[in-house]
Amino acid sequence: MFTDRRRQSSILDVRSFREADCDTNCYLLVAKLRGRLSLNKKAAQKFDGKRLNLRKLNKLEIKEKYHIEIRNRFTALENLDVNEDVNRAWENIKESIKTSAKEDLGLHELKPVNYGLIKRV
Question: Which of 34, 44, 11 has its CA nearest to residue 113?
Answer without folding.
Answer: 44
